[in-house]
């Protein structure tokens, strides 16, 4: 029974993570593909950069909810089948969280091209200990206010999460499973920023700006601009 619960948690987590909200919203609402614009990343930041703050917020909320749901439902099922078994409860939550962020980064429904897991990582922090979420949000905001660079802010939040859950594990009784989940999520998020790290080293990482016009989005994506005659014919 335990193996079945673990398998359900893995599948539930991965399928939930693979539901890439930014790709779905960009295709249905904006009739495009966010991965073809801006940084090419399928996440809330690039969504906001390309389609504006509303699109970015929709993706942010959607990605957050899917991770909370995956972890919450896996724990609920474990508690319903084996009530009182804390070990199975924690392992199911850990597996669902790990595979949710893997699915988000490598979604089976979208040719394994997903986001960098920042929002999912924040949801994992919440489902591990709300204090961890508070810390990483404060760190993210402080770093972003100073640098205006999302990648640095995100990686700083990941490092802060590792330190925070380690302290909670030692001094506040955080479970080993939640510690492992948060450390895994943080390391994956940082690893997925490898291209950003290269640009930071070469001084090429750009500061965050919202989309100003459709023209700017096309320029960023490398699409050719249309002539006035072509635009009138649309």
What does this structure look like?
- The protein has one domain (2-207).
- The protein is 73% helix and 0% strand.
- It is built from 12 helices and no strands.
- Helix 1 runs antiparallel to helix 4 (53-81) and helix 5 runs parallel beside helix 9.
- It is globular.
Structure classification: mainly alpha
Please indicate the percent range of residues in DSSP E strands (runs of 2 or more): under 5%
In round numbers, the mean pLDDT is 88
End-to-end C-alpha gap: 59 Å
Count of individual domains: 1
Alpha plus pi helix count: 12
- Report the helical percentage: over 70%
Question: Which word captures the global form?
Answer: globular
Query: Multimeric state of these chains?
Result: single chain
- List the secondary-structure elements in sequence, H or E: HHHHHHHHHHHH
Quantity of strands, as a count = 0
Main sheet overview: none
Low-pLDDT regions:
213-234
Quick summary of this structure?
The C terminus is likely disordered.
What are the SSEs and their pairings?
Blueprint: H1 2-18, H2 21-28, H3 44-51, H4 53-81, H5 86-105, H6 118-128, H7 130-147, H8 150-171, H9 176-192, H10 194-201, H11 214-221, H12 228-232
Helix pairs in contact: 1-4, 1-5, 2-4, 3-4, 4-5, 4-6, 5-9, 6-7, 6-8, 6-9, 7-8, 8-9
């Amino acid at each position: 029974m335990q193996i079945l619960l673990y398998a359900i948690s893995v599948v539930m987590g991965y399928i939930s993570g693979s539901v890439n909200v930014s790709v779905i919203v960009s295709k249905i609402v904006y009739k495009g593909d966010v991965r073809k614009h801006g940084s090419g990343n399928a996440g809330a930041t690039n969504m906001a950069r390309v389609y504006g703050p509303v699109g970015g917020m929709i993706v942010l909320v959607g990605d957050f909810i899917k991770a909370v749901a995956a972890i919450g439902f896996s724990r609920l099922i474990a508690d319903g089948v084996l009530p009182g078994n804390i070990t199975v409860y924690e392992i199911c939550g850990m597996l669902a969280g790990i595979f949710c962020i893997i699915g988000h980064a490598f979604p089976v429904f979208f040719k394994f091209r997903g986001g960098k897991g920042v929002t999912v990582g924040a949801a994992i922090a919440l489902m591990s200990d709300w204090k961890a979420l508070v810390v990483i949000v404060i760190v993210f905001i402080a770093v972003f206010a100073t640098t205006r660079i999302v990648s640095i802010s995100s990686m700083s939040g990941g490092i802060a999460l590792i330190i925070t859950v380690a302290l909670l594990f030692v001094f506040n009784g955080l479970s080993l499973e939640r510690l492992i989940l948060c450390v895994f999520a943080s390391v994956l998020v940082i690893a997925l920023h490898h291209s950003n790290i290269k640009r930071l080293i070469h001084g090429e990482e750009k500061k965050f700006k919202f989309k100003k016009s459709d023209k700017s989005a096309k320029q960023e994506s490398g699409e050719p601009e249309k002539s006035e005659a072509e635009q009138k014919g649309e």
